[in-house]
């Protein structure tokens, strides 16, 4: 019995064909522009499975995680029949067991509380941007969000990683589950989790009771969970019925979790590449966070090599339509079981093992990347708070002392763009650091400008110190190599985050000490060049910067080092300041030879 095909040539699973939810299962990959016969993997595989009992992974509602018995006739001669069980082919123990970045998080919390938060509270930052960060927001372990259609193997993947069940897990997850480390196994219901001061879920109450009853924290002692939190999400079914019955905005909750996650894993099943409208919307909600997204084409050993290639191609084609990134999305092929059944296709085993190893490597670099991301976010937030303070202080200054307050306030709101320009000139703030003028104008309506705080130099200086001294110092604690680079070298699908791939760290600086001060960096000349490279959100990536830097005539090895030094945030992009410093370093080499470059970036070169 094959799965019935819908009008678009997509394949409906038995589940979706019986629950009345299949109507909207638009397999995104097979819109009218796609030839209908472009991919028929699921049909072929499943048409072979009348007596297998294998349900395409659709045993939703069942309480057993065991798959149906595999079909001998489906198995090609390459299948191993040696009863392999619990074979991942990978040593999972190389995922870090302890979080070595605790100290970084602790110091970040102190810097934020003492030096940045006062700036936020003095100038009503919360009313314009977001509420103050709590300790648990900063101290939270790296989070991995798992997202996908129903029965794509998300829960099984978690069990595979932690090598056990987690409390309160069952097949057919109908709720959000935060799987976390803890001294004992327990389940914390959503309402309690959303008010717990030591859990990073306090903002979730905004999604209401309907959501909180569908949210739980599952804690258990587990070494992997000491380093990260895994978020299991409800399997997405097609159709309005499910969406309406949920009673909360699924896409918004996904957005909330994705913003706080360090990695988002999108799950697909090689048997059925459905992307329902709700899944599509959830993927759209990841916009702007594409660098965190990885795709897992799961159950890859349930199809043979030829079918797998076709599914892979179809998936890439589909993803290209939903996720608009300059880089090709990284897709891991795999089959993640706690206990792998014996009769699966083995013809791609070496590939699948290599892919699993890559994925685990990605997970292994998570604590470090998450710590860097957190420092980055605090830096971004502090810069925003600083500009915000300048704007609010400026508006206060523009108010009359006694008469005509209301009309002056209206005038200032109307000419807000002009006021932003004044602030930009008075305080030398880069234009890119300003908030969206329309949103800011709307928020301003709720305030009386005369009640705003005046510019307070002491509060601003303290925040400035955090930005120029404390936070760069924290960044220095991260070794000068970039694991993203290692990842990209292993990974033919994503471009290197830096444009160059070799590095010599033994160079010594012979230039006068004054050269290594940020004040000597020629930012004015760097500005037009940077702008001509079309920065996105104030940054340029490696592929944009590379042609320009190659034009300097320096060797790739030297430019590799220039990039490493200049990208002090280690995010694989250059901000305008980082770019100006990169050009400064290039000039150092041009005048002093290759040995002019220091082995690490002097602190004085940080803005
Ligand atoms: N690698 C795999 N190969 C084949 N079948 C699998 C694999 N992983 C899981 N399954 C089967 O797929 C079904 C669904 O698995 P699981 O519950 O983990 O998916 P899920 O994505 O969490 O589902 P839901 O979203 O509905 O909660 C189960 O019957 C499970 O045994």
UniProtKB/TrEMBL annotation:
Stretches assigned to the EF-hand domain: 554-589
Domain of life: Eukaryota
UniProt domain EH: residue ranges: 522-607
SMART domains membership: EH (SM00027)
Gene3D superfamilies for the chain: 1.10.268.20, EF-hand, P-loop containing nucleotide triphosphate hydrolases
GO molecular function, one term: GTP binding
Membrane topology: Peripheral membrane protein
Keywords assigned by UniProt, alphabetized: Calcium, Cell membrane, Endosome, Membrane, Metal-binding, Nucleotide-binding
Domain Dynamin-type G: 138-367
InterPro entries: DUF5600, Dynamin_N, EF-hand-dom_pair, EF_hand_dom, EH_dom, EHD_N, G_DYNAMIN_dom, P-loop_NTPase
Start-end of Polar residues biased regions: 10-28, 75-85
Positions with biased composition (Low complexity): 29-39
Xref: SUPFAM superfamilies: EF-hand, P-loop containing nucleoside triphosphate hydrolases
Subcellular location, record wording: Cell membrane; Endosome membrane
GO cellular component: plasma membrane; recycling endosome membrane
Tagged with keyword Repeat: no
Residue ranges, annotated region (Disordered): 1-85
GO biological process: endocytosis; endosomal transport
PANTHER family assigned to the protein according to its UniProt record, in alphabetical order: AT21416P (PTHR11216:SF31), EH DOMAIN (PTHR11216)
Name of the protein in its database record: P-loop containing nucleoside triphosphate hydrolase protein
Organism of this sequence: Mortierella polycephala
Lineage: Eukaryota, Fungi, Fungi incertae sedis, Mucoromycota, Mortierellomycotina
């Amino acid at each position: 019995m094959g799965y019935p095909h819908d009008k678009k040539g997509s394949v409906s699973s038995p589940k979706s064909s019986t629950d009345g939810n299949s109507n909207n299962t638009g397999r995104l990959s097979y819109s009218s522009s796609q030839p209908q016969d472009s991919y028929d993997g699921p049909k072929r595989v499943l048409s072979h499975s009348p007596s297998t009992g294998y349900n395409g992974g659709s045993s939703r509602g069942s309480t057993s995680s065991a798959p149906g018995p595999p079909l001998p006739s489906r198995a090609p001669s390459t299948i191993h029949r040696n009863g392999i069980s619990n074979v991942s082919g990978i040593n999972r123990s190389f995922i870090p067991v302890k979080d070595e970045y605790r100290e970084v998080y602790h110091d970040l919390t102190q810097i934020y509380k003492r030096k940045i938060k006062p700036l936020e509270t003095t100038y009503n930052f919360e009313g314009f941007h977001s509420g103050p960060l709590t300790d648990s927001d900063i101290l939270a372990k790296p989070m991995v969000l798992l997202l996908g259609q129903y029965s794509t193997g998300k829960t099984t993947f978690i069990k595979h990683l932690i090598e056990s069940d987690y409390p309160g897990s069952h097949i057919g997850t109908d709720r959000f589950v935060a799987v976390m480390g803890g001294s004992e196994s327990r389940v914390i219901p959503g309402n309690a989790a959303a008010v717990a001061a030591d859990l990073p879920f306090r903002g979730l109450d905004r999604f209401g009771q309907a959501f909180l009853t569908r949210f739980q924290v599952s804690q258990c002692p587990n070494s992997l969970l000491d380093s990260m939190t895994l978020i299991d999400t409800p399997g997405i079914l097609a159709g309005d019925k499910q969406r309406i019955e949920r009673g909360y905005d699924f896409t918004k909750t996904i957005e909330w979790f994705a913003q706080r996650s360090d990695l988002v894993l999108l799950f697909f099943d090689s048997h059925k590449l459905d992307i329902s409208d709700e899944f599509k919307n959830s993927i759209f909600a990841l916009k702007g966070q594409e660098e965190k997204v990885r795709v897992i084409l799961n159950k890859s050993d349930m199809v043979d090599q030829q079918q797998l290639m076709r599914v892979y191609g179809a998936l890439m084609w589909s993803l290209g339509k939903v996720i608009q990134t300059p880089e090709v999305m990284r897709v891991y092929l795999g089959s993640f079981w706690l206990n792998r059944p014996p009769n699966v296709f083995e013809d791609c085993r070496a590939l699948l093992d290599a892919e699993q190893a890559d994925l685990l490597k990605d997970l292994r670099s998570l604590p470090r990347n998450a710590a860097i991301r957190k420092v980055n976010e605090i830096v971004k937030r502090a810069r925003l708070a600083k500009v915000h303070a300048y704007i609010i202080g400026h508006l206060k200054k523009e108010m009359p002392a006694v008469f005509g307050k209301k009309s002056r306030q209206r005038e200032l709101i109307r000419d807000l763009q002009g006021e932003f320009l004044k602030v930009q000139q008075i305080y030398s703030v880069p234009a890119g650091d300003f908030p969206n003028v329309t949103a800011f104008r709307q928020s301003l309506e709720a305030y009386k400008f005369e009640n705003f705080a005046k510019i307070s130099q002491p509060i601003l200086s303290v925040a400035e110190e955090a930005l120029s001294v404390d936070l760069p110092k924290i960044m220095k604690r991260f070794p000068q190599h970039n694991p993203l680079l290692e990842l990209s070298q292993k990974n033919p699908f994503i471009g290197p985050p830096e444009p160059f791939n070799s590095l010599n760290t033994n160079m010594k600086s012979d230039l006068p000490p004054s050269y290594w001060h940020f004040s000597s960096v020629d930012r004015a000349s760097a500005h037009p060049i940077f702008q001509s490279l079309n920065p996105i959100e104030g940054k340029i990536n490696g592929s944009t910067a590379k042609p320009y830097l190659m034009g300097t005539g320096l060797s790739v090895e030297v430019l590799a080092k220039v990039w490493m030094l200049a990208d002090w945030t280690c995010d694989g992009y250059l901000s305008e300041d980082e770019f100006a410093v990169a050009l400064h370093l290039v000039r150092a080499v041009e005048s002093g030879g290759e040995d002019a470059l220091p082995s690490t970036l002097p602190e004085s070169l940080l803005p």
